[in-house]
Amino acid sequence: MTQVTTTKAIPNGQPARASLSPKAQNIYNSLWASVFYSGKVTSKIVMVCSAVRQEGASTTACALALAGSVPSGADRVALVDFNLRAPSLHKYLKLKPGPGVAEILIEGRDPASVAQRVSGGLDLYSAGNEAGRSLEILKSQNVKEFFRMLSEGYDYIIVDAAAVNHHPDAQILASTVPDILLVARAEQTPREAVAQAKKRLEAGAGSVVGMVMNMRTYPIPKFLYKRV
Ligand SMILES: Nc1ncnc2c1ncn2[C@@H]1O[C@H](COP(=O)(O)OP(=O)(O)OP(=O)(O)O)[C@@H](O)[C@H]1O
Ligand SMILES: [Mg+2]
């Protein structure tokens, strides 16, 4: 399993904005390479989720999409907020909560009509104004078709999903988006919780292609760390 460790890459504990600091760009570039060039992914669509809440899944998804996209749009990246329980990507990118995924899957809205431009190479599909109708959305016959359409229009697709051990969403979605990046908060998330999440995702036909140990802190002060 590919393991990537991130430090507190985003200054002041703030989520990613429309651009990353050079340090964060470096870290998430490596993550991008580990994910998409690992030989483990079966497609260009990756779901990012965590075992329990507030581990940094959305921050990771957002920063990964920002790092992997370039304003010139040489590669087209779509960031999809499928965390219908606690949508946050639009807040992190200072965009609208909807219309988005909910309106595409419930009302049959054209995906292109709800895409929000982050940069020339990155579009956000926010969860939508009707995201609360989560089970209806997840059970929609149109989920596969939605991802098929995205695959035609984009080179890479990053999908944010709700915490695996709290909601069935990621497990359900795994049958359509089987390549999964699991985020855990370093020194905090119990090993058993991560193991349980992995088991659930695999039961849903998903495969964990990598792990992110997020918000790792170093016990040795930085000035000393440089000398040892
Ligand atoms: N690498 C990081 N550096 C600094 N702060 C971070 C980092 N990762 C996450 N955070 C902070 O932790 C909090 C939770 O992050 P985030 O929203 O990404 O978690 P989540 O797993 O998506 O949560 P939820 O379960 O609600 O979807 C946010 O306040 C975010 O700013
Ligand atoms: Mg989130």
Textual characterization of the structure:
This protein has one domain (2-217): P-loop containing nucleotide triphosphate hydrolases (Rossmann fold), CATH 3.40.50.300. Helices cover 36% and strands 20% of the residues. α1 packs across α2 (57-68). It has helices spanning 22-36, 57-68, 89-92, 101-107, 111-114, 134-139, 143-153, 169-173, 191-203, 222-225, and strands at residues 2-5, 45-50, 77-82, 116-119, 122-125, 156-161, 179-185, 207-214. It contains 10 helices and 8 strands. An 8-stranded mixed beta sheet has the order 1-8-7-2-6-3-5-4, sandwiched between helices. It is an alpha/beta fold and 228 residues long. Residues 10-17 have low confidence and may be disordered. The structure holds adenosine-5'-triphosphate and magnesium ion (MG). Adenosine-5'-triphosphate (ATP) binds at residues 6, 8-10, 13, 15, 50, 53-59, 83, 86, 88, 163, 214-215.
Provide keyphrases for this structure.
228 residues; Rossmann fold; 8-stranded mixed sheet; 10 helices; 8 strands; binds magnesium ion
Q: Work out the helicity level.
A: 25-40%
Largest sheet: 8 strands, mixed
Which word captures the global form? globular
Poorly predicted runs of 5 or more residues? 10-17
Structural class: alpha/beta
> Distance between termini?
28 Å
The overall number of domains is 1
Strand order of the largest sheet: 1-8-7-2-6-3-5-4
CATH topology: the name is Rossmann fold
Number of helical elements: 10
CATH superfamily: P-loop containing nucleotide triphosphate hydrolases
Share in β-strands: 15-25%
Give the H and E element order: EHEHEHHHEEHHEHEHEH
- What is the level-2 CATH architecture name? 3-Layer(aba) Sandwich
User: What is the mean pLDDT?
Assistant: 90
CATH class: Alpha Beta
Number of strands: 8
The Cα radius of gyration reads 17 Å
